[in-house]
Design a protein that fits this description.
There is one protein chain. The protein is an alpha/beta fold. The protein contains 14 helices and 12 strands. The chain has 2 domains: about 250 residues, Aspartate Aminotransferase, domain 2 (3-Layer(aba) Sandwich), CATH 3.40.640; about 130 residues, Alpha-Beta Complex (Aspartate Aminotransferase, domain 1), CATH 3.90.1150. The strands form 2 sheets. The chain has a 7-stranded mixed beta sheet with strand order 1-7-6-5-4-2-3, with helices on both faces. A 5-stranded mixed beta sheet has the order 8-9-12-11-10, covered by helices on one side. The termini are far apart. Bound molecules: ligand 3LM. Ligand 3LM binds next to helix 4 and helix 5.
């Protein structure tokens, strides 16, 4: 059977692993070993010099990590991938590798709270200029980009307000420049969206979310061409961040990937039903979900994503305290940060995931202080809707 003809669902289960080369074990072996023995000093020296392939030390990779990385690269349509200890480990290892003092990074207005904090309080401190623009409008990038711009960075959909970026349109602009386009694909996973195929140069992920899928690990990865990945591995990760993925988490992500397509379909269906329910409810002011017909970028979502995702955001016709009371009234739905878990989770970005922004910065970065964010879980939809309905009944008005 030709490998390239296999569907995503099949590759998520099989790619890069042959049980018959491992005693028939259905699941890849996990190597709980920090270091790897050489037969001779000469062999060790050749491995360190990169002249002879040999695992050296787990900060540089392990055999089980290689299987995971081959699978992730394949699913993201990338040449190579690097697994990391967290999404922030992937983002920081990548950007420390791509940027030099004096460079500029242009980022979209809306970023996950810790990514914003890393740019604002990390990169800036080390002589890198950080500029935020509205990447929903490619012309704005055309005007802003210069020879100093080394990286253009965006999430799509953006966390938490669901703004979409037209990856192909932005990539057309960066392709004619020095700048590398880095896309955080956490919200979509490669099952729903493949930024590299649309022209992006690098993809970063929090694997803590849908890829692991069960809220029991912290991990991340980056995917790109082989040269870029090896630079991030041997410089950004090895020397700058040390954000090494653990052996157990490698196993858990390989396990999570097998059910990713099945789970994503259900996450998408549940999110769509919740968005439609909230959309028609008189106590709801606005719903942000790309699958709604009146979502401003509904057409772009249809073009760029296989389905419209498991995340949504909304505002109540209520003030901040009343919105908090609504969340507190939930019984089944849990008030927690993170996303992509089996459990439906709700949280208040301004005081939780995006509390790294000041009140002024929230406004500048288009994040409403009353916004609530919901990660649709895998429970029966009627149970989720019943819980939301009973909590809404407790909101005055
Ligand atoms: C959250 N997000 O609840 P880790 N990129 C995106 C993310 O959403 C995240 C990361 C990177 C959340 C975490 S907030 C205290 C909890 C789009 C994480 C970072 O390092 O694996 O957490 O990924 O929105």
């Amino acid at each position: 059977m030709k490998k390239h003809s296999l569907a995503f669902e099949t590759r998520a289960i099989h790619h890069g692993y042959n049980p018959h080369q491992h005693h028939g074990a259905l699941n890849p072996p996990v190597h709980f070993s920090a270091t790897y023995a050489f037969e001779t000093v000469q062999q060790g020296a050749a491995a360190f010099a990169g002249e002879q392939p040999h695992y050296i030390y787990s900060r540089l990779g392990t055999p089980s990590q290689s299987i995971l990385e081959q699978r992730l690269a394949n699913l993201e349509s990338a040449e190579a991938a690097l697994a990391c200890a967290s999404g922030m480990g992937a983002i920081t290892s990548t950007l420390w590798s791509l940027l030099e003092p004096g460079d500029e990074i242009i980022a979209d207005h809306t970023l996950y709270g810790c990514t914003f904090s890393y740019l604002e309080h990390g990169l800036k401190k080390f002589g890198i200029a950080v500029r935020y623009i509205d990447l929903q409008n490619p012309h704005a990038l055309d005007r802003a980009i210069s020879d100093k711009t080394a990286v253009v960075y965006a999430e799509t959909p953006a966390n938490p307000n669901m703004r979409l970026i037209d990856i192909a349109a932005i990539a057309e602009i960066t392709a004619n420049r020095q700048a590398r386009l880095v896309i955080d694909n956490t919200y979509c996973t490669p099952y729903l969206q493949r930024p590299l195929a649309l022209g992006a140069d690098v993809v970063v992920h929090s694997a803590t979310k849908y890829l692991g899928g069960h809220g029991d690990l912290i991990a991340g990865f980056v995917a790109a061409d082989t040269e870029t990945i090896e630079n991030i591995r041997t410089y950004g990760l090895k020397d700058m961040t040390g954000a090494v993925i653990s052996a157990l988490d490698i196993h858990l992500i390989l396990r999570g990937l097998k059910t990713l397509p099945v789970r994503m379909d259900r996450h998408c269906d549940n999110a769509r039903r919740i968005a439609e329910f909230l959309h028609q409810h008189p106590k709801i002011k606005r719903v942000y979900y790309p699958g709604l017909e009146d979502f401003p970028q509904h057409e772009l979502a249809r073009r760029q994503m296989r389905d419209t995702g498991g995340m949504l955001a909304f505002e109540l016709n209520a003030n901040r305290e009343q919105s908090a009371a609504f969340v507190n009234a939930m019984e089944l739905v849990l008030c927690a940060v993170s996303l992509g878990d089996c459990e439906t989770l709700i949280q208040h970005p301004a005081s939780m995931t995006h509390s790294t922004y000041t009140e002024e910065e929230l406004a500048q970065h288009l994040i409403s202080p009353n916004l609530l964010r919901l990660s649709a879980g895998l429970e029966a939809i009627d149970d989720i809707l019943a819980d939301i309905e009973q909590a809404l009944e407790k909101v005055p008005g």
